[in-house]
Amino acid sequence: MIYTLTANPSLDYIVRVKNLEIGETNRAYETEIFAGGKGFNVSSVLSALGYDSIASGFTAGFSGAELERLLEARSFKKDFIPCSGRTRINVKLKAQEETEINGTGIEIDDAQVEELFDHYKAIADGDVLILSGSIPGCLDKDFYARILDSQKDKDVLFIVDASGELLAKSLPCHPFLVKPNQAEIEELLGIKIHDDDELIAAGRKLQEAGASNVLISRGAKGAMLIGEDGAIYEAGCPQGKLVNSVGSGDSMVAGFVAGWIDTHSLEEAFVQGIYCGSATAFCADLAQKEDIDALKASSPITVCRTA
Ligand SMILES: Nc1ncnc2c1ncn2[C@@H]1O[C@H](COP(=O)(O)OP(=O)(O)OP(=O)(O)O)[C@@H](O)[C@H]1O
Ligand SMILES: [Mg+2]
Q1: Which residue puts its alpha carbon closest to atom 16 of ligand 1?
Q2: 23 lies in a domain?
Q3: Rounded Cα gap, residues 303 and 306, in angstroms
Q4: Domain of residue 180, residue span
Q5: With contact defined as beta carbons under 8 Å apart, do 274 and 223 qualify?
């Protein structure tokens, strides 16, 4: 089974305003509410690729109830752990410029963390555990490391898509895959990367710190994989019209995992990850199976592998 975790989900409230005037009463011409959560995105794209998963997440209050309602239609298995407070509401204000205000909210106590650990006792040899995104401020930055540590006696594939200290602290637990983008690597290492050689060197530092494979996503420029086989895989991505890149990174993670399970080839997993990331970038929402298949049929990807 594949397990995904969204420790810090949100309700995303999109507000479109023609001409925002700060300090005035403004009228939106359109509002929308979406379920936000990177682990849920990964589970959705895994479903599209034919893989079932169990998506855990902490939820609370009326916004948590609405989040759960919005996720009902998605076909993965849900494992919501009820908490106090309120699932955060992130406001995305789309006017002349885009402004985002991420809310606060949820309170998670030790008993609720224990509940998650209890559920994760079901994880078995051969399973996959994907930890995606940030954690609420009430949890310590070693949260992912603690989860991975609790599973270390099992033969589980760990995937971590996080940033900063949360990512840094999980590296010694030897995740099979981490998927930073370039900005996240720069932040983690406190450096500025100017060229491919520096990017490779930075990726290798994450390997030295414990990650087996480092998949660096580069938006429209494609991706690079620093493989556990010692090779570097580089590829551009299919050309297309960018519609909405939210969830591209999560789609890439889902594609890589599915590709790896299918083939046990790093190169195939890498290519599948790029297709899924790009298919989502070219869609209004997360990519569906038809979107991914159409992209594969129309846009071959050439991988440059250097040993
Ligand atoms: N504009 C684009 N055109 C084509 N493909 C894209 C584009 N943006 C993203 N992708 C695809 O999706 C992959 C992941 O995107 P990106 O690097 O933006 O991830 P990210 O920064 O982790 O995103 P997020 O965490 O917000 O989902 C890229 O490597 C690429 O394959
Ligand atoms: Mg990302």
Answers
A1: 219
A2: no
A3: 10
A4: 2-18+28-306
A5: yes
Say how far residue 219 (Cα) sits from the centre of its chain. Answer: 14
Task: Please spell the DSSP secondary structure of 150-174, one letter per residue.
Answer: HTTTS--EEEEE--HHHHHHHGGG-
pTM for the model: 0.97
Catalytic residues: 250
Q: What is the CATH number of the domain that holds 209?
A: 3.40.1190.20
Best residue among 42, 245, 285, 286 to mutate for probing ligand 1's pocket (most ligand atoms within 8 Å of CB) is 245
Residue 262 within any structural domain of the chain: yes
Q: How many domains does the chain have?
A: 1
Per-residue pLDDT 10s for the chain (307 aa) are: 999 999 999 999 999 999 999 999 999 999 999 999 999 999 999 999 999 999 999 999 999 999 999 999 999 999 999 999 999 999 999 999 999 999 987 999 999 999 999 999 999 999 999 999 999 999 999 999 999 999 999 999 999 999 999 999 999 999 999 999 999 999 999 999 999 999 999 999 999 999 999 999 999 999 999 999 999 999 999 999 999 889 999 999 999 999 999 999 999 999 999 999 999 999 999 999 999 999 999 999 999 999 8
